[in-house]
Amino acid sequence: MDAIVLLKEDHQTVEKLFKEFGQAGDRAYKTKRKIADKVIEELTVHTWIEEKIFYPAARAAVPATTDHVLESVEEHHVVLWMLSELAGLDPEDERFDAKMTVLMENVRHHVEEEEKEWFPQVRSALGRNRLGELGGQLAAAKPDAPHDPLRVPSAHE
Ligand SMILES: [Fe+2]
Ligand SMILES: [Fe+2]
């Protein structure tokens, strides 16, 4: 599969979870816990494969994306720490919904920048064959990705 298509599908999966979270009742604590755990897993795996495989390949192929890549890594850093906090936060805590809301704002902003501002440049530079090859690498790396957000490299960079 094409690497950018794969990454955009991940974005959609996460957006769907965000919508479910938004629709969950205020006191639907079990549901909100389950959705948050799924978000933590999805985003940890996604940021991992981007940082290990896609970002380095993009930067190598299109040096002009370097600033975008570096900014994206900083955004991952913030998101990963928020995910690690959410993992240990009781959904009944008064800060839980607020933390999820700010996480969602950060992720939506990040996804928008990836999809609109710099993935298109990477697509033109890499071409179909190379994107297909990279997509295979991304898919193959998913099962090995950590589920602890703080094990993604940018969490400690
Ligand atoms: Fe990202
Ligand atoms: Fe992404």
UniProtKB/TrEMBL annotation:
Sequence segments annotated as region (Disordered): 134-157
Recorded hits in InterPro entries, A to Z, give: Hemerythrin-like
Regions of biased composition (Basic and acidic residues) lie at 144-157
Where along the sequence do coiled-coil regions lie? Answer: none
Protein's recorded name: Hemerythrin
Give the species: Wenjunlia tyrosinilytica
Query: Which PANTHER family did the record assign?
Result: HHE DOMAIN PROTEIN (AFU_ORTHOLOGUE AFUA_4G00730) (PTHR35585:SF1)
- Please name one Pfam family that this protein belongs to: Hemerythrin
Query: Hemerythrin-like domain spans which residues?
Result: 3-121
